[in-house]
Amino acid sequence: MSINCSFRIIIIYFCLYLSGLSVSAQVQVRNTIWNGEDFLCTPACRVVKEDSIRSLIFESVSYKGQAKSVFAYYATPAMLQGNSSQEKKLPGIILVHGGGGTAFREWVVMWAKRGYAALALDTRGNGPDKKHIDGGFDENEKETPYFDVTLPQKEQWVYQAVSDIFNAHSLLLSFPEVDVERTAITGISWGGVLTCIAASLDSRFRVAVPVYGCGFLSESGRMKQQLDGLPDEQREIWLKQYDPSNYLPRMERPILFINGTNDVHFYLPSMARSAVLASQSGLLIKQGLRHSHKYGWQSEEIAAFIDQYLRDVKPLAQITNEKVEEGLVSGEIISSTPVEKATLHYTTDSGQEREKYHWQAIESKVEKNKWRIPLPAGITTWYVNITDVRGYQISGELHIGN
């Protein structure tokens, strides 16, 4: 570590002390494979293009003997308006794409319009045209090596991608317009997997929303298929090093898991088991939600959940005291916004291919913040969603079996 960096760390800790932000809010990689990396210093960064948003390349951890280059988009509300005046105390967000994706320009614009300083990074070594950048991660013109543990550990994709998120967060926090006490992260699909890991270890994030991606991948759809295709030793190494279930018990800040009923990659039981590991978790299951970047980031509940912690807006509803008795499921609701309805989503199907299940729904009125719905005969998997007058949904417990 350089003398300049050491001095900067002292200054940062002093500023955190003065601001009241706990110095324990750091990247806590002790007893993980990332132990020994320095994620506190602001990475070197250069602007490669600027119009209504900025295109950046920043340095991440060592890769093949040199600091790796990572491309990112960055936007703020003032940038979109062509306003050069200095913004202050903006909430910030890191946006992590999924498989086959990149840093999406429209994604940062979406969040900047919501009032955020938004940074979307590419974890595949590509630039805005999806072409490889000098010094970036090398896919060798093949699919991203998600499960390859035959490479040197510090050159494996998950190791590098999680490191990139830590460094992107440090870069975001270095911008003077960003409030260091109010940052979030959300990711889609593989970006959701990375979000689970990064948010669990980086306590500077105040809230997280993984979409589709979760832990327990050895039990989950096409993720299981790919893991089962590895030699046993490699499969066990990957699961031990990278499955989010190893890290989510460290997640002590709010996290909302979002998925669809028939997702082919990430099955609902894996998501529900992942949520149990985190101390402040919630579920949002949407019947028929399709799997893609744009479907994934369109759920308005993502912003609503993050806003309730970073911008003091009215929170999503909460389901409490959920009970199953005499063929009925019932529960109560905590909500500062009027609730429109309760909906039982259920299937009578069974078997291993959960992406083929047929789902049905039964709606019920909510009276005095209480609801009750009869359970149909032959039900195998089910959950209840609450919808408020804004149209925002939240899910109760996922039930598997009668």
Automatic annotation (TrEMBL):
Keyword terms, alphabetized: Hydrolase
Hydrolase listed as a keyword: yes
Keyword Nucleotide-binding found: no
Residue ranges constituting the Acetyl xylan esterase domain according to the UniProt record: 84-245
Domain of life (superkingdom): Bacteria
Coiled coil segments of this chain: none
Natural source organism: Bacteroides cellulosilyticus CL02T12C19
Signal peptide: none
Name listed for the protein in its UniProt record: Acetyl xylan esterase domain-containing protein
Pfam families: AXE1 (PF05448)
Entry's Gene Ontology BP terms: proteolysis
InterPro entries xrefs: AB_hydrolase_fold, AXE1_dom, FrsA_esterase, Pept_S9_AS
GO molecular function: serine-type endopeptidase activity
